[in-house]
Amino acid sequence: MVPVTRTVACRSTKDDRDERVRTHTTARLNGNASAEWQHQAHGDAHLGGPQQTGGFSEAVAETMLQSRRASSRKQYEVYLIKWRNFCDKRHCDKVYTTVNIALDFLQSLFDVKPRLSYSTINTARSALSSYITIIGSQYPFGSHRDVKIFMKGVFNINPPVAKYAEMWDPNQVLAFLRTWSPTESLTLKKLTLKLAMLILLTTGQRCHTLTLLSLDDMVVKDKHIAFYVKGLFKQSRPGYKNPVIILKEYPLDRSLCVFTYMKTYIKLTESIRDQEQKEVFLTYQRPHHPPSRDTISRWIKLVLKYSGIDITAYTAHSVRGASTSMAKLAGLPVEDILGMAGWSKENTFSKFYDRPIRSASKFAETVLGGSALLS
User: Fold this and answer.
1) What's 170-362's CATH class?
2) Is the model's pTM score more than 0.85?
3) Where are the domains of the chain?
C-alpha cells in the first residue's frame, strides 16, 4: 500500500504554482485500487475530500461505486474523458480543483455550436460532481452556489424544448401488427418483434423493462400473465415499489392479444432455451441469448419502420409516450396511467410524455370537411 499525493490548480506560471499548488495525501489504498477510482467512491458518497476520510477498503469502495447505475456511469464517462483531456491541456489536476476551473470546462462544452442542451450540460455537471473535489468547499461541485447560478444561465440562454411536439398514432402500428398473424404462422423473429411491441404498447413501459422480465417472476392465470419484477427500473429507489407488469387477454381481437402471443412465445422458445436462461426474451438469431436494452430498442425501431413511422424523427422510447398519450385521449384516468407506467408524479407524464396524437390533430379538418358535405 502506497501513499498517493495530488497536486492542485493550474500550473500557468511558476509564481502562480508556488502560491496555488497544494498537496493532499489520500488514505493508503488496498491492492490494485487506483487513487482516482477510490476517489470516485468518496465523491459518490459525498464524503468530501479524501483528506477527510479514514480510507475505505477496496470492497467498500466498490460497493459505494454501485450507488451509480451502470447506465449513469457509462453516460458520465463521456464527459469525464473530456474533463481529463481539458485538464491535460491546461495542466490542471483532474481530481482536486477549483470551481472556476470546473465552470470553465462546462462553459467550453456550452460554447460548442450548435449549443448543447441544458440537459446535456446538466449531465456533465453531475459527472463532475461525482468525480472532483472542490478545494476549500464543504459542498459537492453540483451543489455549489456558483454552479447553480451558472446552470440557471444555461437554462435561460438555451431553454429546454420538448423532444416531440406530437406523437405518432398507435393505431398505425396496431394495423401493421394485425398483418402478422396467426401466431402459428410467424417466424421466431416476427413473433419476437410483435410481442415486444405489444408489451410496450399495452403497459406503457420502457424497452429496458423487457430485459427484466423473468420466468421466475411470472405468474400465469386464466386470462392474464403477471410479472412481479425484482430487478431495478430506471425510477427505482429506496421505498419505491416496482409496478406489476400485467399482460391481459384481449378476446376482441386475437391478432393483438398480448396474452396469447406471450404464451406462444414461451412455448416456442422452450427448445432453444438453456436451463440457466430465465429471462423471457431471447435473441432470434443464433446463438440465442438474453438481449440487451439496445438490442430491444433496435427491435422496436424495426417495427416502427415496418409500420411506416418515421424513425429519423421518433426513437424506440417514443412508444412509451405514444401509448400513454393514447390512453389519456381514450379517457383512462391519469392515476391509472401513472400506476401502470410507474410514475409517482403527474408532472413527469405531462412534461415529458403527454403529447397530442398525430391523427387527433385532424379533428378540425374532419369536422369542417363534414360540414362542407352537408351544405
Assistant:
1) mainly alpha
2) no
3) 5-157, 170-362
